[in-house]
Design goal:
The complex is a heterotetramer of chains A (about 240), B (about 900), C (about 290) and D (about 240). Chain A has about 240 residues and is mainly alpha-helical. Chain A is built from 13 helices and no strands. Chain A has one domain: Orthogonal Bundle (TorD-like), CATH 1.10.3480. The longest helix of chain A is centred in the first third of the chain and has 30 residues. Chain C is about 75% helix and about 0% strand. Chain C has eleven helices and no strands. Chain C is globular and about 70 Å long. The chains are: A mainly alpha (about 240), B alpha/beta (about 900), C mainly alpha (about 290), D alpha+beta (about 240). Chains in contact: A-B, A-D, B-C, B-D, C-D.
Chain lengths: ~240, ~900, ~290, ~240
């Protein structure tokens, strides 16, 4: 491979990583917080067409309504869907254990600290294992990879890539696509319904690229899982009194 | 053979043989078996690792037991009683054991919510605590500004704070007084206020503390001590110790057979609202048969035995039998037993008190202890012991203008107010509300005719702004404009003391874990709010909230407690949970013992404690012996001794209550026949009850408790049911004047034939998925974010039907208690089209009930007719004025 | 508080009664199928049923393995009873025997096909003994539950063996009729086996009836529950269909030996053998369900 | 030694421990604290119980009575469940506990069939915290606590001090004194199990009453709901 080719290849990879980072940032941002003025503006302008191409037709009221009203409306939908009691909890811990802030939450947080990030909440009631934050982490890893490539640090880039793929497979793949499906089915507003649907599709696409077919089938089963399956734990032995 | 001790080996053996047989009866040795420890440590059953232990004070119910929370990886996994706690002695009840489930429940409200749709439409927008307190502060500031502008301090009473459970150690009062509002509405009149008003004028405190352990005879009226009542856990432990350990006799009166009836030696089911008649008849027998304690009555009360004998004349056991259905011969026998068995005590709770005229019934029961001289004796009927803690200085002065909200002036004796009247006062335009705040309160579920509260809170004209501090979406919180969630009780700071033992204690509620997910305890919210109401301190309010956070506030409070500092102060409490440490709980006897195994005795005879010279300095002695200082009675002089006496104006027990007669009520305990006693033959009396595994409304979401008790069919006697063609489990319609409910019949031998009893523990229409069994209905919506255990293993399919909205408002004109057990109903088989869970009630009828119940108040027309025997100037009763007595 | 707040499931369900029934049938089918090899002589008449018998046994083993494994809460650990063999547990022995029995079935068929006759006789003997041990151990499974009085009787293994004997013969009779390999001598043998089996079952049924009625409180409660919830299984399926009907059909040898009659009697007795096991399994568990 | 056990019966054997519980029925007030404490201690899922208190009302108004009977594994000295286990997953400990090795259990439920006390259950796979499921579970006498010199969780929280725990072989222990000095009964001792949970002292008739199937609609409808819920689930024995 010539140097030129390699350079072109790298440039392509950088571009791709940046694009992926952009998508995941968008998805993470959508799920993590209510839309604000700036985000709405982006949706109406820059993001409108690409989103439409990705299958997300933005609803009319979002595109044309007075922005204060639209934002208020979206905030209410967001709260009803993800925050208020009885909502679809966006936390891995709740999904896995039924309780907030349990072990999965610490586990996910560990991923962040290992990669050099620190979780800081903006509002109360937020935990590191929020779907949006986790997608944001994927985005951050993509852009970190791009940065490494730009620096020419292939080793670090590879490390980041491995971390991202492992994170996706171990922490995200097993539940987020299924969660997106159910959340989309009860979303009151078409914007969230479509964005959740998009998130599910993007993730699945991503997972199909990095997971071998067998693992993918497993993930597919996991996402359909009900009831939650227990894996045997190494603590089995102790618990039996020996 | 040893010449000094000429006993043969044979002789030794013989001695050994005979002593072996009697070894048990030779008595104790200092050597004790190495028994297992009762608690104080905990280990994970899975990993075997020791768990971190943090003491706290429970608040699942109001008894405030001491506990230890066990933490694994920063998460609370288990709760246990604090073994150093003299009240609950290391044990928690089922509710206390399950309380940790509140903390991580995904149905908990974790961020302030601002309403966006119509009230009750469940449309919310999440906001930050900062935004939320800004909104609240601006609403409060509007009222304060208006008050300043119009120069009318009364306007500040439009800031209203209502609580159902206020364990803040005075923080609510500090908050409200700082803003100049007196509009604080409690919940006591749905709880036990007439008991308090029966007791307070009699001897000072609002409750008795029975020495169950050492008693020989316990006469209990309508207080299901072993399941609920006040001090469920501590009292139940001691009652069992008394009945089983000390062979005390337990006689129990309750129209329904609860677990206390199960342990009782004798259970009687009186007609609801007739406990007073029984108590008066018992008193009559004791007095007539000269079984009373003459010296005690003459020395320590403001009546003479002769006066009592005269007063009690009409209350013969035969009369009591006619009223209550309890046989006269049993009443006579019990009277004799009670008077001659020493020590003895009574205990009473909601059974007698929660009726119109419940205060009389309570006073009658109290009198039994007085005439038999069992007051403040070991094994008797004692004064409650608690510890005081003040708010840290500087303290805001009390607000200037009294508020009549929930404390109408027609009830001057109701020292614990009449909160049930609040919605009607507002609806009738008598009182105005600008900002309404609630704390641990769920009246839409817990109040009589609860639909009235629903109507009130939905009306934005009557309640322009409503802020709830609930961490759970209760039936009431659903109607709020703004929810600023408090933390659960395991993540907050409070000082605590409760008379749950005869040795006073002080406890701490502390943040066992940091408030989950950055939520904040209510104290923090209040500090922030007040800093925004008065940002520059110009209103003079900010100074009272110069704390960094809730913990600092509470620390300042503890710093003011004498004696605590020497033992290590706040940090001591953080480490041990309770102060002082009297000793340790003996695992075999449960007595609190010192290092040598001797019991640490509580102090008895508090009323006879002599006053010190310092106390007497500047005191004057009135004609009746009352020792007065600064306008208050601090003791009483008897036989030349200055003693502490009782908390009454005369320093003695006032069986004859001047305060009662002032408003035309009988100064001595009497029995007043209730309307429910005169029901038609086909009618029944509806009573409600709590169960041992649930509180009023907050525990239906705890899975362990919901599994144990999740539905509340109506208890009905087999004879009563048969007469109506009702079989066990039939769908029935229970109709009162307010409305009807459709539930199922629980045909049981454990209830009076004229009574139907429905538990208030079940039938939520809010409070998370489990309380409503939502996870069974809308799987898709509720499946995610659920405990897999709850999502898949909930096997019951009945959440019960709540009875409160068909219960009629009717309050005791003296103590202000809601007459929970005065509602007359009819019970029929369900009609065509009736569905299980149907409830219908009428707002109009409830408003009429309010008007009707006011007629019983001392200002009403029924009052005089019911008190013909009272000799006063009926034309010149005191004018009602707001704030009198409250 | 109401009187009950907790409930229990009955630990063993239909999977077990189906298994008991099938594996018993398989054991005896094997014994009959290999009888010509084992005894020769007049059992040679059964030779045409050898292959169907083996196939039946094999198919049943193929069904029973997964059925048993599915019934476990930890199916992946199905080999544990052998790995952690506990000699006082009939289940451990049963698992071992089941495996060995399956091996015998396969090996017998294999050697027979390969024309290697030398190992056939020992395999026939061992396999038949193992086959017999199938109903025996399933019966023991119940019998050793000493705290369940309905089960804790040595009659149970005997009953199960007798039921299996009938079932094995009945299954072969049905197959024989379908495949029209009817042979008067074979029918004679099957008839004799079935008749004696069903007749013994009748006596055992009556004996069990007596021990239910005259037994301990638990036995009587078991009987009460059976009559309450399982009356059809007890009276119709077990007694009428499973015992009396075949007995009536078989009692006269001249009629009973007709292949069709034999097959009908066989089907009836198979139904009865299943129902009887289910009845026993249920009756043994339910009296203590609310304990 | 009864065959098939891993440890010999230790009741009354000098030099050995024999943990036992005495339940003083006069002191049981049916508060259910033990049930909640046990569920919390082990994250016991809904629908199964390691310990429970049975309630029964008897008599006719106004002479109605209510009886409680706390129930848990009897930690038999001669446990029928242990002998039958095909994998030795359930075993008898030297000090008398009957314990379960989850890593060995295949959930064949033979032990459940063997236990005359219904003290065993299959753990559902859906649980909150502890990742052990699909195996048979039972009361362990809180072995992890007792070996750390603590009483079991149910004893710890027992309001009436109805549950008393200790070493039966220690002549100075409370349980030894109670078993020796009070009239006690054990449940179904005629089954030869040598149960080590002693009761002070229920009338036989009450014990029988408590064992009887639910009679009231309230309980029967719960039973129906329970069996309806379990229908079609694995391990459901097909009742109702």
């Amino acid at each position: 491979m010539t140097l030129e080719m390699k350079k072109a290849e790298t440039a392509k990879m950088i571009e791709e990583n940046r694009a992926q980072a952009g998508i995941f940032t968008l998805l993470g941002r959508t799920l993590e917080y209510e839309a604000d003025e700036a985000f709405l503006e982006l949706l109406r302008t820059t993001l409108r067409e690409p989103l439409a191409e990705a299958g997300v037709e933005l609803p009319d009221d979002l595109l044309h309504g007075p922005s204060a009203e639209v934002l208020e409306h979206l905030a209410v939908e967001f709260t009803g869907l993800f925050v208020a009691p009885g909502a679809i909890s966006p936390y891995a811990s709740v999904f896995e254990t039924g309780a907030m802030a349990q072990e999965p939450s610490s586990r996910v947080n560990h991923w962040y600290t290992e990669a050099g990030f620190e979780f800081r909440r903006m509002l109360s009631g937020e935990f590191p294992d929020h779907v949006g934050t986790m997608l944001g982490f994927v985005a951050a890893l993509y852009s970190a990879e791009a940065d490494c490539l730009e620096r020419g640090d292939d080793v670090a880039a590879e490390e980041t890539k491995v971390r991202r793929e492992r994170f996706l497979l171990e922490e995200v793949g097993g539940w987020v696509p299924g969660w997106c499906r159910i959340a989309a089915s009860v979303a009151g507003h078409p914007f969230y319904e479509r964005m959740l649907d998009l998130t599910g599709r993007v993730l699945w696409e991503e997972l199909s690229m990095i997971a071998p077919p067998r693992r993918l089938r497993e993930l597919s089963d996991l996402n359909a899982r009900r009831p939650a399956r227990l894996e045997s734990s190494p603590e089995f032995r102790k618990a039996s009194g020996l | 053979m040893n010449k000094h001790f000429p006993v043969s080996r044979r002789g030794f053996l013989k001695l050994g043989g005979s002593t072996a047989a009697i070894a048990g009866s030779l008595g104790a040795t200092r050597l004790h078996a190495m028994e297992q420890d009762q608690g104080g440590k905990d280990f994970s059953p899975v990993t075997g690792k020791e768990r971190q232990a943090v003491p706290y004070t429970c608040m699942v119910c109001n008894i405030e037991d001491g506990g230890i929370a066990y933490i694994e990886d920063g998460r609370i996994v288990k709760l246990e009683g604090n073994p150093d706690h003299p009240g609950n002695r290391g044990k928690l009840c089922a509710k206390g054991n399950s309380g940790f489930l509140h903390v991580y429940d995904p149905d908990r409200i974790m961020t302030p919510l601002l309403r966006t749709g119509k009230r009750g439409e469940s449309k919310w927008k999440r906001i930050s605590y900062d935004e939320a307190t800004t909104i609240l502060a601006s609403k409060l500031r509007e009222v304060i500004d208006r008050s300043i502008k119009e120069n009318d301090p009364a306007i500040r009473n439009e800031i209203v704070f209502k609580w159902g459970r206020n364990r803040t150690g005075g923080a609510v009062h500090r908050f409200m007084h700082a803003m100049g509002s007196n509009a604080m509405v409690n919940h006591t009149n749905i709880c036990e206020s007439s008991k308090k008003v029966g007791l307070e004028p009699s001897w000072g405190p609002d409750i008795e503390s029975c020495d169950w352990t050492n008693t020989k005879y316990a006469l209990v009226f309508g207080a299901n001590v072993l399941e609920t009542a006040y001090f469920h856990n501590p009292n139940a432990q001691r009652l069992v110790d008394g009945v089983v350990g000390n062979k005390a006799k337990l006689v129990y009166f309750d129209p329904r057979m609860g677990n206390t009836a199960a342990l009782a030696d004798e259970w009687f089911a009186p007609y609801p609202g007739t406990d007073g008649a029984i108590a008066l008849a018992i008193a009559q027998v004791i007095m007539n048969e000269k079984l009373y304690d003459d010296a005690f009555i003459r020395t320590w009360t403001n009546v003479t035995p002769e006066q009592l004998i005269e007063h009690l004349k009409p209350y013969t056991p035969e009369f009591a039998e006619k009223e209550s259905g309890v046989p006269a011969k049993d009443i006579r026998r019990i009277a004799r037993e009670f008077a001659t068995t020493k020590p003895a005590t009574t205990f009473s709770y909601r059974g007698p008190a929660k009726h119109v005229y419940g205060s009389y019934q309570e006073a009658a029961i109290h009198m039994l202890n007085v005439i038999t001289g069992n007051v403040e004796k070991k094994g008797g009927y004692c004064l409650p012991r608690g510890m005081n803690f003040n708010q840290p200085s500087p303290k805001p002065p009390a607000a200037k203008v009294p508020s009549a909200l929930g404390a109408p002036p027609q009830y001057p004796l109701a020292s614990h107010a009449v909160s049930t009247h609040m919605p009607y006062q507002i609806m009738k335009g008598e009182e105005k509300v600008a900002v309404y705040m609630t704390y641990y309160d769920n009246p839409v579920y817990t109040y009589p005719s609860s639909h009235v509260w629903d109507a009130l809170l939905k009306d934005e004209k009557l309640i322009p702004f409503y802020c709830s501090f609930s961490p759970y979406m209760s039936e009431t919180a659903e109607l709020a404009d703004l929810i600023i969630p408090d933390t659960t009780y395991l993540e907050r700071n409070d000082p605590e003391s409760m008379p749950s033992d005869l040795r006073p204690w002080l406890g701490i509620r502390q943040q066992v874990i940091k408030p989950l997910g950055g939520t904040q305890e209510w104290r923090d919210t209040i500090i922030q709010t007040m800093h925004k109401v008065d940002p520059d301190g110009s209103l003079g309010m900010k100074q009272y909230f110069a704390f960094k956070n809730g913990e600092e506030w509470v620390r300042a409070q503890f710093d003011g407690i004498p004696g605590l500092k020497e033992d290590g102060g706040y940090d001591y409490l953080k480490k041990h949970g309770v102060w002082p440490k009297y000793g340790s709980v003996d695992p075999v006897t449960a007595k609190i013992v010192d290092k040598n195994g001797e019991e640490v005795q509580p102090e008895f005879g508090l009323h006879m404690k002599e006053l010190s010279a310092a106390d007497m300095d500047g005191a004057t002695i009135a004609d009746n012996g009352a020792i007065k200082k600064g306008g208050k009675t601090i003791g009483v002089r008897i036989n030349g001794k200055n003693m502490a006496g009782f908390g009454t104006p005369s320093g003695k027990i006032e069986l004859w209550k001047a305060s009662y007669v002032k408003y035309g009520f009988n100064p001595l305990p009497v029995y007043k026949r209730l309307a429910s006693r005169d029901k038609k033959p086909d009618e029944l009396v509806l009573t409600t009850f709590k169960v041992n595994v649930h509180t009023q409304s907050r525990t239906a979401s705890l899975k362990y408790l919901a599994e144990l008790y999740h539905k509340n069919p109506a208890w009905i006697n087999p004879k009563t049911a048969a007469a109506r063609g009702i079989k066990d489990g039939d769908l029935i319609r229970v109709t009162s004047s307010v409305g009807y409910m459709v539930t199922r019949a629980h045909v049981t031998e454990g209830i009076h034939p004229d009574v139907v009893a429905i538990s208030t523990a079940c039938g939520h229409s809010a409070y998370g998925r489990l309380a409503q069994l939502k996870q069974k209905e809308k799987v898709a919506e509720w499946a995610l974010g659920g405990d897999p255990d709850i999502d898949h293993n909930v096997w019951w399919d009945d959440k019960g039907v709540h009875p409160n909205s068909i219960i009629k408002l009717a309050v005791d004109p003296i103590g202000g208690s809601q007459g929970w057990y005065d509602t007359v109903i009819t019970v029929t088989k369900a009609q065509a089209g009736d569905k299980y869970g149907d409830v219908k009630s009428s707002l109009e009828v409830s408003i009429k009930d309010y008007e009707e119940t006011l007629r019983f108040a001392y200002t009403g027309d029924i009052h005089k007719a019911n008190h013909k025997e009272v000799q006063i100037d009926w034309d010149h009763l005191p004018e009602p004025h707001v704030g009198a007595g409250h | 508080m109401f009187e009950y707040m907790n409930f229990h499931i009955a630990p063993w369900g239909w999977e077990l009664s189906v298994y008991f029934f099938l594996i018993g049938t398989a054991g005896m089918a094997y014994a009959l199928a290999t009888a010509p090899v084992m005894f020769g002589g007049r059992f040679e008449a059964l030779r045409p049923l050898q292959l169907p018998g083996l196939v039946l046994a094999f198919v049943i083993v193929l069904i029973c393995g997964p059925l048993l494994i599915h019934d476990l809460g930890q199916p992946m650990r199905f080999l544990y009873p052998i790995l952690y063999f506990h000699w006082t547990s009939p289940l451990s022995w049963g698992s071992l025997f089941l495996l060995m029995f399956a091996a015998c079935v396969v090996l017998f068929w294999w050697f027979d096909r390969a024309g290697n006759t030398a190992p056939l006789k020992p395999l026939a003997i061992i396999g038949s003994l193992l086959g017999l041990s199938m109903p025996l151990y399933t019966g023991n499974d119940l019998m050793v539950q000493t705290t369940r009085e309905v089960w804790a009787t040595p009659w149970i293994p005997v009953l199960f063996v007798v039921l299996s004997v009938t079932s094995g013969a009945a299954a072969l009779a049905v197959i024989g009729m379908i495949r029209k390999t009817d042979d008067a001598d074979a029918s004679k043998i099957l008839h004799a086996v079935m008749l004696s089996g069903v007749a013994t079952t009748l006596f055992l049924f009556l004996g069990l009836l007596l021990s239910f009625l005259y037994g301990s409180e638990e036995m009587q409660l078991g009987w009460h529950i059976l009559n309450d919830q399982f009356a059809m299984q007890v009276w119709l399926l077990t007694l009428v269909v499973g015992i009396l009907a075949p007995l009536a059909l078989l009692v006269r040898p001249d009629i009973g030996r007709r292949p069709q009659i034999l097959a009908v009697a066989g089907i009836a007795s198979l139904i009865g053998a299943y129902a009887f096991r289910e009845v026993i399994l249920v009756a043994g568990q339910l009296p203590q369900l609310y304990y | 030694m009864p065959i098939g056990l891993q440890a010999e019966p230790s009741a009354g054997v000098a030099g050995k421990k024999r943990w036992a519980m005495v339940i003083d029925l006069r002191r049981c007030i049916g508060c259910m604290a033990c049930v909640a404490a046990c569920k919390a201690e082990y994250d016991v899922p809904l629908g199964v119980w390691r310990t429970i208190v049975k309630v029964k009302d008897t008599g006719q108004y106004p002479n109605t009575k209510r009886h409680f009977l706390p129930r848990l594994c009897n930690h038999c000295d001669n446990p029928p469940c242990v002998r039958n286990c095909p994998t030795e997953a359930t075993y008898k400990h030297e000090e008398g506990y009957v314990l379960q090795r989850y890593e060995r259990c295949i959930a064949c439920r033979t032990c459940m069939a063997a236990c005359p006390y219904n003290a065993r259950h299959v753990l559902p796979n859906s649980r909150t915290r502890v990742k052990i499921g699909g195996v048979v579970d039972k009361c362990t006498f809180c072995e992890h606590r007792v070996s750390n010199n603590l009483v079991p969780a149910c004893v710890q929280t027992c309001l009436g001090r109805s549950r008393i725990f200790g070493d039966l072989n220690d002549p100075n222990s409370e349980v030894h004194k109670l078993v020796g000095g009070m009239p006690t009964v054990t449940l179904k001792s005629e089954k030869g199990t040598k149960p080590q949970v002693y009761y002070i002292k229920p009338a036989q008739q009450i014990v029988n009453q408590i064992y009887s199937p639910p009679e009231s609609y309230a309980a029967k409808s719960d039973a129906e709901a329970f069996y309806r819920h379990n229908k079609g689930r694995q391990f459901f024995g097909g009742v109702l």
